[in-house]
Amino acid sequence: MNLICRPLRPDEIATAVDWAAAEGWNPGLADAQAFAAADPEGFWGAERDGELLACITAVRTGEDFGFIGFYIARPEIRGQGVGIALWRAAMARLEGRCIGLDGVVAQQANYRRSGFELAWNNARYQSHAPRIPEVAPADIRDASAIPFAQLLAFDAQAFGLPRPDFLRAWIAVPGHRARVLLDAAREVEGFAVLRPCREGSKLAPLFARDAEVARALIADAAPHRAPGPLILDLPEPHAEAVALARSMGMEKGFETARMYTRAPPPMRRDWIFGLTSFELG
């Protein structure tokens, strides 16, 4: 069927983000720019006769990790083998690495056939009128005000491994508001990025050593959110994160199955009050 699977050009990455919006995933306004920085050849597409039919991400991080996301085929070509051909190309690009994904819960059996096993479920919580926590004053600064190495080290503990290229782009792209909370010794206690989306804003990530720090970062970010819902994507097993979202009046939406091909990086899941993204982990 003359199908070509290849890395996407920058303008095609923007098309993939538009497809994600049409699927109801509510991507961020600057996702194309920041995601491309994570791995310039991490976005792939399936093309036939010069026409883009499907997309996927196969993003490499470090020497031993990769993440699959943005797996979308145009509705009119589904069931024709295009999606599975692109899936195989993405998996081949990440061969030999630990691979993660956030998949549709009902499709877990299909992912198991590719070697994935369930680790936990993530869930989206959101509210158009969240109850913002009332907190004591804290030392919260722009993320650019501290040495990048210090921010990278904190982010790496929460995420599970360093991701310097992505992190530099994520805190610097237009519209993102990246903030850190410091303790008395000027050590990082929490890190949050307010990410404007097609609808509302996500706190993505919201990494904090405890719920008190998370509440302070939410209170700092909330006045600057875009019109629409405030959104947190979080690990369902993290009881403190779920309790905080519910205390703000956030309602649970869809869930995803976080799956890996082998043991995931040693992340601090107890620090994750908001995931960075369903597309990159």
From TrEMBL:
CDD domains membership: NAT_SF (cd04301)
SUPFAM superfamilies: Acyl-CoA N-acyltransferases (Nat)
PROSITE patterns recorded: GNAT
Assigned keywords, A-Z: Transferase
GO molecular function, one term: acyltransferase activity, transferring groups other than amino-acyl groups
Pfam families (UniProt xref): Acetyltransf_1, Acetyltransf_18
Ranges of residues in domain N-acetyltransferase: 3-139
InterPro entries tied to this protein: Acyl/Acetyltrans_Enzymes, Acyl_CoA_acyltransferase, GNAT_dom, YitH/HolE_GNAT
Cited PANTHER family: SLL0310 PROTEIN
Protein name: GNAT superfamily N-acetyltransferase
